[in-house]
Amino acid sequence: MRIDRSKLSLDQPVSSLDPTRETHEEAAEWLRHGPVVPVSLPDDVRAWAAMSAEAARTVLDAHPDLSSDPRHWAAYTRGEIPTGWPLLNLILGESMLNADGADHRRLRRLVSHAFTPRRIDALAPRIREVTGELLDGLEAGGPEAVTDLKKTFAYPLPLLIICELFGLTDPDQQHRLRGHFRTMLSVEVSNAERQAAAAGQREVLAHLVADRRAAPLGDLTSALIEALDDEDGRLTEKELIDTLEIILLAGHETTVNSLTSTVLGLLTRPDQLTALLDGELEWPAAVEAGLHWNSPLRNLFMRYALRDTVLQGVTVRRGEPIVIGLAAANREQHGTVPARFDIRDSRHYERQLAFGAGPHYCLGAALARLESAIALSQLFTRFPAMRLAVPESELVPVVSTAINGLAALPVVLGRPHR
């Protein structure tokens, strides 16, 4: 049946976002209704979903009729959004993620120096060192032991690197922060638990700020404190904490899920893994294939219409929110939704949307790519006979409206190569 897209509205969502459903199966259903569709989020919060690559790029670019500032979200300003709604704490944060124009440029500029190509390249030796230490720990478990590679390898590597970048070196604080982030992003906990996690993570970050203010270390947190204390007032206290929160979260969560998904892609395509180990294919190309096949972010929240705006044939009313379906759009951008992992097919990966696009393109994308390439190379070089410990059909996805990945990746490492 042909759908009259001009009559679509938030009053009649075409579907509900189901965090328990497979990401791309749901996306394919939504795309049948068009590139921009009205959907119901948890707790019946209504939003438009930009699901095609063209629609996603339109929303992510510096669109004059759209804003990243949640003060333009009409339902929120009317008090219609529950206090403990999933992701609300991040959506309301005073960080560059939720800022436009001059404010966005100011906040982004304060942290961008830590993510220049030169600084990222300088981190490579430390990434190799941490990767080697983690692999040594895995090897100690024995060749036939079953290990959750996400928990023991894909999770600690990017967390350690981003925390060191920020000067958060206490392992207990690192793990507390990870636990708080996991709870905040979960749809399986109560609103009270989510609020407690938000308070807990702010406590960890406030403690970090106090430590670095007392003893600056030349890390990114110390630099942000200097900006806060500068007499020109380039940063407020809340902007400082919110900036730390969003970069620490994005700086490890995307890499964890990208790395886990790419390992799965290689384990289930042994011919491509062999080509990598023989030097016929490059590890950075495997990273790009993994990002295209299964982007680490399911959805990006949100943009808001400053005035009635026509997007891909539908009218988004002033104050209505738009969710960007990054995982779906990244697969769809070549006219199909190819459920394939093919390192050789590089034409599909030239304009990745896995890390967004436009002014808010992820600052840490280059770091995530470098971490993944080093990690994959060292992991499979050390354990070339690694295999899944369970059938692929038994792997369970993360239950989340925002994150796209696996809850766990049980593997048998096999004998290490020396």
Quick overview:
This protein has 17 helices and eleven strands. The chain has 418 residues and is of the alpha+beta class. Pfam families: p450.
Kindly describe this structure.
Keywords: Heme, Iron, Metal-binding, Monooxygenase, Oxidoreductase. Residues 1-21 are annotated as: Disordered. One of its GO terms (molecular function) is iron ion binding. Belongs to the cytochrome P450 family. With 418 residues, this protein is an alpha+beta fold. The chain has one domain: Cytochrome p450. It is 48% helix and 10% strand. It contains 17 helices and 11 strands. A 6-stranded mixed sheet has the order 1-2-3-9-6-4. The protein has a 3-stranded antiparallel sheet with strand order 5-11-10. It has a two-stranded antiparallel ribbon with strand order 7-8. α10 (171-185) packs antiparallel against α11.
Low-pLDDT runs? none
Average of pLDDT: 89
Going by CATH, what is the homologous superfamily? Answer: Cytochrome P450
Classified by CATH, the class is Mainly Alpha
Overall morphology:
globular
Strand content: 5-15%
Helix content: 40-55%
As a whole number of angstroms, the C-alpha radius of gyration is: 21 Å
Multimer state: single chain
Q: What class would the helix/strand composition place it in?
A: alpha+beta
The CATH topology turns out to be: Cytochrome p450
Descriptors:
418 residues, oxidoreductase activity, acting on paired donors, with incorporation or reduction of molecular oxygen, globular, monooxygenase activity, heme binding, Cytochrome P450, heme, 17 helices, three-stranded antiparallel sheet
